[in-house]
Amino acid sequence: MRFLVDAQLPPALARWLSDRGHIAEHVAEIGLATASDAAVWQEAIDKSAVVVTKDEDFAVRKVLDRTGPAVVWVRTGNTTRRELLSVFDRLLPAMIEALARGEGLVEVR
Description:
The structure is a single chain. The protein is an alpha/beta fold. The protein has one domain (2-108). It has helices at 11-19, 37-47, 56-64, 81-100, and strands at residues 2-5, 23-26, 50-53, 71-74, 105-108. Strand 3 (50-53), helix 3 (56-64) and strand 4 (71-74) form a beta-alpha-beta unit. It starts with a strand and ends with a strand. 28% of the residues are buried. The mean pLDDT is 97.
């Protein structure tokens, strides 16, 4: 699966996803660290990537635009990088399964 990790999340999450066999990029790695939500959204469409974000605006946009990219909405609040990766380690299989079923919005808590 291909992921585009948004600016509020650490680049380490993209590396962690890549280490597990996925294609993952952080927006900072591709020159979009300060890009608008619309630019990140379009990049995800262009690359057929799932947006991984803490930004509620992406979740709302997905509800309003079912044709756009899938969104993984991270709702863990402020955590350390280690805690965040631990949450993903625990939830990744279910998240991948939900995305594979065609769910457009997956919440991670």
